[in-house]
Amino acid sequence: MSAPACTWLGRSVPRLEDGPLLRGLGRFVDDIRLPGLLHGAFLRSPHAHGRLTAIDAAAAEALPGVHGVLTYGDLRRVLTCDRIPLAMPAGAIRFDVDPFVLARDEVCHVGEPVALVVAESRAVAEDALALIGLEIEPLPAVVDPRAGLAPDAPRARLDCPDNRVAATEAAYGDVDRAFAGAAHVVREAFNLHKGGGHSIEPRGVVARFDQAERLLTVWDSTQMPHQAKRALVRTLGLAEHQVRVVAPDVGGGFGPKFVFHPEELAVAAAAMIVGRPVKWIEDRLESFTATVQERDQHWTIEAACDAEGRLLGIRGDLVHDHGAYTPYGVALPYNSATNLLGPYRLPAYRLAISLCLTNLVPATPTRGAGRPQGTYVMERLLDRLAERTGLDRAEIRRRNLITPDQMPYRTPLRTRDGKAMTYDSGDYVECQRRALALAGWDGFEARRAAARREGRWLGIGLANYVEGSGRGPFESAAVRVGPSGTVVVTTGATAQGQGTVTMLAQVVAEVLGIAPERIAVVAGDTNASALGLGAFASRQAVTAGNAAHAAALAVRAKILQVASAWLEASPADLELVDGRVQVKGVPGSGRALGEVADALAGAPGLALPAGVAPGLAAGVDFEPEGLTYCNGTHVVEAEVDPDTGTVAITRYTVVHDCGRLINPMMVEGQIVGGVVHGIGSALYERMLYAEDGQPQTGTYADYLLPTADVAPRIAIHHMESPSPLNPLGVKGAGESGTIAAPAAVASAVEDALRPFGVRVADLPITAARLHGLLAAAGGAAP
Amino acid sequence: MKPAPFSYHAPTTRADLLALLAAHDDCRLLAGGQSLVPLLNLRLAGPAHLIDITRVAGLDGIARDGEVLRIGATTRQRRAERSPLVRAAFPLLSDALAHVGHVATRNRGTIGGSLAHMDPTAELSVVALVADATLTIESARGARTIPFVALPTGPLATAIAPDEVLTRIDLPLWPEGHGWGFAEVTRRGEGFAVVSAAALVALAPDGTCARAALAVGGLVAAPARVGEAEALLARRVPRDDRIAAAGEAAARLPAESDLYGPEAYKRHLARVLTVRALRQAVDRARGGVRD
């Protein structure tokens, strides 16, 4: 009789978000329509680098329908500081390269905002842009970070003495001795490119300033409304109660909407200056040039192993393209460096990391956040060592995997918060074993031979990964039951389509015995939750999920305490079922939760029941002890046409372990989306710039996202190794699908072309690039 | 991403259309809009007048007239692709159309719009070239016809004058039992081609090529015929070595590097795809297969 009537955790509950969205009832930033709303458009730098010498706005201001043409000087008058203080604390950062709200006297990338036109319509605002006279004296641009680090390189920014904005390292063990005693050493250079976030909904802001109350309300397509509020409070000189930031329905984040961009401040400041609400919706051209993205890393690296294929050490250099500003510290390349370890034992390691300022839009994390690159490098090195030692690629991995008896496994590296990077749980050996079995690794040679008889070239590849998820320091959630019986969850977590609302509703439903669809979740509103961070680092099920869980348990305890008195039954004999608290096994014996809430709402002068504190509510800020590590194995089969260099992925298998599953369907959705994003990085996505820093791939005709017709069917198998670090035992799932995909695809492509002697190193593996490799290797199978 | 102001016109008769073109400078014609509308929104095109020709009576339709297939310029690509008449009379066009953009864009995009836009990678241009298509171009000054080969004048530029409109595409039919082939490499899955190749082959009873036509697109601003290959196939049996030689001839065509391929890669694709298209065409001609 102790089991609840139904449990909600671990069930593929249909997403609560989908009904309104599918019926066109979503409310995105562009759906916010206010009386007197004006529309903004940004004049952006056409040069990658230059000195801003003059802006002539007279003709634009004279255009009918234009309410203002604002430049840096205009906005500065309502700001408290020259630059937007954004930099995440990082000791390694040498220079202050925070951005200005609009370019002040130097432009540092194509697309940098220079002026803001506010007009009756977006079309009129864009007409006005064409009338602004902009004088920029071009300066030499830094586009390639390797060239940017040369002593005689031009400076990407006139306010910095050189371009090496940070230098750091990840290192432990005696790596040189490891190499000295190695049986095998492989060396390789990897030039890696990773794509942007490319959410369907671009960025967007609506800002309204109520002069009478001095109340600024900003609807912002952001992952981090509380951070945006902090930035607005600080830069606009307002108090916390005067700024409200709301992230309404957000059509995808994938990383870039973590960053507070200058436009978010510019639009808010403009609303204060013109005295009317202002809307700015980023168009796709702007997304390509002004939204942060991930880009290039150049690795020069070597790996050593003993005669049995056991890793002894890895050492090398990483040059990272940082872009023109630094809103994200050194986190991106540091993630790459630390995630290189993956699920393997690596006795010694030394990676020197240089971050180079370039005249490109800032590079900050997109889904995977640098981890795919680190994983790619490790997995490619293992493939090389497999070849060198004659071991099967799966076998050399098996020999190096951390085993379950070593859990929790403390690596010698430290995470961003200074704690030891410690893998909390997981069975990496079993994960790989299952993936190989499900993918038919052992039967592949027969498939390969059959395909060869048809003139087709098949290859198979695999990759393992871990991902540190659930990053702190905290997330907030509160659970309230009102006299109406409605359960409302408020949280500092945010939703961009990943199912945050459903996830939290399931967690609370489990504790309160009420169906998820009867639970309202309010996320993304700084007025609803005093504290909050938001979406990054695959963290919200871990942090907000456990916060909501703890809060719901506190509410449950109050319910039981009150009901125990009312029903004259021990709390142990009570159960919460379908919105009621009742004596176990006696339906109809109890009271509705709303009645408990009504009693705890109090009546004037009367005592509260059972000596319970007022209100049927509890709020919890959950602080995770440390990162919790999910893991997985991807196995890919690909067909390569050696005559054209084209690649088709024919089979894809994922075994994935993100601890206890809250909603398997939503996890699978995350994995599929992540894998496809990773396939994009592996084969298609490439933001190209000319030597002068002009973007060459500014539309989706030129910048190739992975589309449905090139996405394979992805078979997913779950393992569940609960995390010991949080009561729910959950781990993050949002980014993991992306992490192993490029490595696994590269392994499969290289395997298909093994008879040609092709070695795949650089990403993306475009058809033209692969053809070049084939031609260089002689172009013909032996 | 809003277009600059323009005047919108939607004539319903050919006479009104030609009068509008004569009356206004700086016109652009809007048909399916799959290329022009993005250009307008990006402000890469900013005409004073936009003339929507999709309501003009008599500009669409597919008909066989003796040994010619006549296709009205505003015929939607998807309609032509699914047309039994096209499939029976000019199967190369049906096959090539299946590679144009995506189904969603083909539902809107028109045959004439694609040709007049003259994208260097357009599949329809390759077909029009290999088929010796004739284009009818009209203006208030009268009508004229030009061979397709005279249409391109540069990147995204054609011989259609500002006051003219492309109204019809005529494809001279190949004999019953001819073979056809189309092959391309795209940037990614469905969508823009990097290089594409089309082949038509008619065999004489003795197995020699009575006629052979080959064209390759994507190498430079406009597609090119592989004349050298056509000459070496003429009146000869299309043996494997000659098919290979045809590919080598295609690889000698001029090519320009772009984001999707250095010149050498494009020439390589010209060779590979010409061989594939020609092989298909020869096999079909030999088998007399109509699939």
Structure description:
The complex is a heterodimer of chains A (782) and B (291). The longest helix of chain A is centred in the C-terminal third of the chain and has 28 residues, at 540-567. Chain A folds into three domains: 18-25 and 472-622, 2-Layer Sandwich (Aldehyde Oxidoreductase, domain 4), CATH 3.30.365; 36-140 and 200-290, Aldehyde oxidase/xanthine dehydrogenase, a/b hammerhead (Aldehyde Oxidoreductase, domain 3, Alpha-Beta Complex), CATH 3.90.1170.50; 401-471 and 626-782, Aldehyde oxidase/xanthine dehydrogenase, molybdopterin binding domain (Aldehyde Oxidoreductase, domain 4, 2-Layer Sandwich), CATH 3.30.365. Chain A is 28% helix and 25% strand. In chain A, α10 runs parallel beside α11 (371-389), α11 (371-389) runs parallel beside α19 and α18 (664-684) packs across α19. Chain A has 20 helices and 28 strands. Chain A is globular and about 90 Å long. In chain A, the strands form seven sheets. A seven-stranded mixed sheet of chain A has the order 3-5-1-12-9-10-11. In chain A, strands 7-15-14-13-8 form a five-stranded mixed sheet. By secondary structure, chain A is of the alpha+beta class. Chain B has a five-stranded antiparallel sheet. Chain B has a four-stranded antiparallel sheet with strand order 11-12-13-14, sandwiched between helices. Chain B has helices at 14-23, 36-41, 77-82, 84-89, 91-97, 103-108, 111-117, 123-130, 227-233, 240-251, 263-287, and strands at residues 7-9, 27-30, 49-52, 62-65, 68-72, 134-139, 142-147, 152-154, 157-158, 165-172, 179-186, 193-203, 209-217, 224-225. Chain B has three domains: 7-52, 2-Layer Sandwich (Uridine Diphospho-n-acetylenolpyruvylglucosamine Reductase, domain 2), CATH 3.30.43; 62-172, 2-Layer Sandwich (Uridine Diphospho-n-acetylenolpyruvylglucosamine Reductase, domain 3); 180-287, Enolase-like, domain 1, CATH 3.30.390.50. In chain B, a hairpin with a 6-residue loop joins β13 (209-217) and β14 (224-225). Chain B is of the alpha+beta class and 291 residues long.
